[in-house]
Amino acid sequence: MSAGEQQDRKETMVVSKRVSYWTVAEVFDWVREQYPSQSRALQQAIAKHAISGRVLLRMKKDQLSRLGMESKFQQEFLRDVLLLRIQEELENLNNIYY
User: Fold this and answer.
1) In the prediction, which pLDDT does 40 show?
2) Residue 13 DSSP symbol
């Protein structure tokens, strides 16, 4: 898959379940889909530290470093987590108004 195709896939990411309700296994699956080249190290960290969806939404750069994520992938990962946060907030707003 080319970089452009991978970017298109990420931008059209659709979340069927609220991220804050994701289990560790669901975070594991998301990482495997979004970061196939980085998935092994990330998946080990997710399992070791029991990173659920609620924890994922709160991840910061220093935490990623402690988990062993290479710095060149941290910005991309944080951007994708920010997109998940935005989707979560939109869902919260929809629940308030509908």
Assistant:
1) 80
2) -
